[in-house]
Every structure is written in C-alpha cells, then in structure tokens.
C-alpha cells in the first residue's frame, strides 16, 4: 500500500511516498516559489521517483505552515504530530525532537511510545531559525550548504552579540570589515542559532535521546554547537528535512489501516 505525505513549509515543499507505512520509496524537496506550483511539483517528483501513478496512492496527509492552501483540502495534521511520527520512525528511542525550519524552531518532548508530551516553539523571531542562516549566507556570498564547511575550519569562533537578525547582519558586516576570518565568523553564526535553540530545549527539558529534524539539521556546524550547548550527542538522519512529510505519510498509512479495519 502506498501513502503520500506532503509538508508545505515556509521555504520548501516536501513530499514522501511511503510503502506499507515503512519504506520511503520516493521523496522530493522543492524550494518554494509563490503559489502552489511547487507543491504540485514536489508531489509529482516524489511519485515519479517511486515509479507510481497518483491513482495508486491510498491516502494523503498534508502538514506544514501552508497546509490550509492544499488543493484537495486533504487530511490536514499539525507539523508537531508529523515531526514526532517521522523522527520516532527513524529513532524509536527519541525523547526530544529539535526541529529548526525556515522560519521557526520547535522543541518536542516525546514519551517512550513516541507520542508528544509537550512542546515549545519560537515563531516570533527570525533569529534562531533557518531564516537567520539564509540571511547570513547571503551577505557572506555563500551557499547555505557551505556554512558547515566554513564552520569546520574555525580556530576562534567569534561571538555574535546581537539577538536580532537585522542588528546581527550589521554586526557580521562590521566583523568582516575588521578582518575577522570567515570560518570564525561562520562558526559564530552557527553558535548563535545553537544558543537560542539550546535555551528553548532547556526550557522544554532535555530528555535523551535528542534528535534534530528540519532543514537546519543538515548544518553540522549548528549540530556541533548545539551538542556543546546541551552537553549531549544529537542524533540526526540525512532525511532530516523530510521528517514532517514522512510523519504525514505515516499518519496517512495509519488512517488507511483504520479505514480497512486493520
Ligand atoms: P520549512 O519547513 O519552514 O520550509 P525546512 O525544514 O525545509 O523549513 O528548512 C529550511 C531551512 O533549512 C532553510 O532556511 C535553510 O537555512 C536550511 N537548509 C536547507 N538546506 C540546507 C542544507 N543543505 N544545509 C544546511 N542548511 C540547509
């Protein structure tokens, strides 16, 4: 049985095709433009990769910030539920999920069954989210994937004192003008996101195993700084950015099973 999970985020649209509630057979991540074309393209690409036709999808679930705009008004579920399901699928012993996306950061505390017990989120401020890293990469003329490469070369990471993205942007520009080495600056930028996220995690309560999801999890510089901040190892999968869409596909599978009375 195939199910589809769609995650319409603030910066990317993701889709996952799941076989029998277990195996990812197709997936895609499309950088969002305006409107819903990118969602169609995310779905189409995931189905093509799975080598199946839309009619073969038994159930679809949509999640994410833009889920209300989904064309067929499919089954809508919150990102919190979906990230919990997706991360639990990869890491059955996950106790804390740290999801940093394009415009917010969420910390979920899970029980042993993978159900969410509590959560905290920052959706008021760009600092501590992917947006902050996108802005910084842009002024440094780096691709987002280069941040971890530069951060790994740092000798003396600088500290970014501004807590606001707009002020931090000026601070980074003046640090550059003062001759601070690029790797030290980038490591400081990653650390700044980790410090903000770390305080959210501490407020939520650190329950091991701590796992990361969302696009920013792919940045090893942020992961390392957050590990230092919390004093624990952080588990992450290369599929981190797909965790919401994966959770949505799992939710769709569970729904389809219920309909069949399984
Ligand atoms: P949303 O669901 O809100 O659209 P995502 O979970 O897709 O957000 O995360 C998007 C963010 O992930 C971007 O703002 C960017 O900072 C970061 N990101 C995306 N791809 C990469 C990558 N390959 N390496 C590091 N960071 C990345």
Account of the protein in words:
The structure is a single chain. Helix 6 (182-204) packs across helix 7. It contains eight helices and ten strands. By secondary structure, the chain is an alpha/beta fold. The two termini are 13 Å apart. The protein has a five-stranded mixed sheet with strand order 3-2-1-4-5. Helices cover 40% and strands 22% of the residues. 44% of the residues are buried. The structure holds adenosine-5'-diphosphate. The site of adenosine-5'-diphosphate (ADP) has 20 residues, from helix 3. Adenosine-5'-diphosphate binds next to helix 3.
Features:
262 residues, globular, 8 helices, alpha/beta
Radius of gyration, taken over Cα atoms and rounded to an integer in Å: 19 Å
Low-confidence stretches: none
Element order, helices and strands? EEEHEEHEEEHHHHEHEH
Strand content: 15-25%
Morphology call: globular
- Binned, the helix content reads 40-55%
What is the SS-derived class? alpha/beta
pLDDT averaged over residues: 93
What hetero molecules are in the model?
Answer: adenosine-5'-diphosphate
Main sheet strand line-up? 3-2-1-4-5
Secondary structure: number of strands: 10
Largest beta-sheet characterization: 5 strands, mixed
Determine the oligomeric state from the structure. Answer: single chain
Please, how many helices? 8
Distance between the ends = 13 Å
Describe the protein's topology.
Elements: E1 2-8, E2 12-19, E3 23-31, H1 37-50, E4 57-63, E5 75-76, H2 79-90, E6 96-100, E7 105-110, E8 116-122, H3 130-139, H4 147-151, H5 165-177, H6 182-204, E9 210-213, H7 220-230, E10 234-235, H8 243-259
Parallel strand pairs: 1-4, 4-5, 6-9, 9-10
Antiparallel strand pairs: 1-2, 2-3, 6-7, 7-8
Helix pairs in contact: 2-8, 3-5, 6-7
Bound molecules: adenosine-5'-diphosphate.
């Amino acid at each position: 049985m195939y199910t589809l999970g769609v995650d319409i985020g603030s910066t990317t649209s993701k889709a996952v095709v799941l076989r029998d509630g277990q195996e990812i057979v197709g997936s895609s991540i499309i950088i969002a433009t305006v409107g819903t074309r990118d969602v169609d393209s995310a779905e189409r690409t995931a189905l093509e990769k799975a080598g199946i036709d839309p009619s073969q999808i038994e159930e679809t679930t949509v999640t994410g910030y833009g889920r209300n705009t989904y064309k067929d008004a499919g089954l809508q579920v919150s990102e919190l539920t979906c990230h919990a399901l997706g991360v639990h699928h990869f890491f059955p012993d996950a106790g804390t999920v740290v999801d940093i996306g394009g415009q917010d950061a969420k910390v979920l505390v899970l029980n042993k069954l993978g159900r969410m017990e509590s959560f905290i989120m920052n959706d008021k401020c760009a600092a501590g989210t992917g947006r902050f890293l996108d802005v910084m990469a842009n002024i440094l003329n780096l691709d987002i994937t280069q941040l971890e490469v530069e951060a790994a070369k740092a000798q003396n990471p600088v500290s970014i004192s501004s807590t606001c993205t707009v002020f931090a942007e000026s601070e980074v520009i003046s640090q550059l003008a003062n001759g601070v080495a690029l790797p030290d600056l980038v490591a400081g930028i990653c650390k700044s996101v980790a410090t903000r996220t770390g305080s959210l995690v501490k407020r939520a309560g650190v329950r091991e195993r701590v796992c990361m999801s969302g696009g920013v999890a792919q940045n090893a510089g942020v992961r390392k700084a957050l590990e230092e901040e919390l004093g624990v190892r952080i588990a992450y999968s290369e599929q981190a950015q797909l965790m919401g869409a994966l959770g949505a596909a799992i939710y769709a599978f569970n729904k389809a099973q219920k309909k069949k009375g399984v």
